[in-house]
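Fig. S4 source data, part A: sequence.
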Amino acid sequence: MEKIRTNHIKVHFLWDEFLKDFDLYKIEYSNAYDFGNNLGIYCKLEGLCPNSAVCAFNKMVKEGNADAPTKHRIFLFASAKKESITTAMLQERLEKVNVKIGIFSK
């Protein structure tokens, strides 16, 4: 179990139970992505499967110069295993967006 703390609530996330039923993908935009157009990923993934969810957050990354971190936009996309969504299907949906897709597994 992983504890995730926010400014308002504390969440206990049951990864093992979640990953039994859902595939979890991390979709990360490249540095060249226009952050003013963040809704693009929601539009492209909307309706891919009925039991899915997308969550977005910013990640500060120190690359090279430690005094100048860069901002990466990270999206987590979860879909039910029975939907059999693959990395290739996600890449096809996001073909015009420069992203890197990874899958979380146990």
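Fig. S4 source data, part B ends here. The beta strands are 2-5, 10-13, 22-29, 52-61, 70-80, 99-104.
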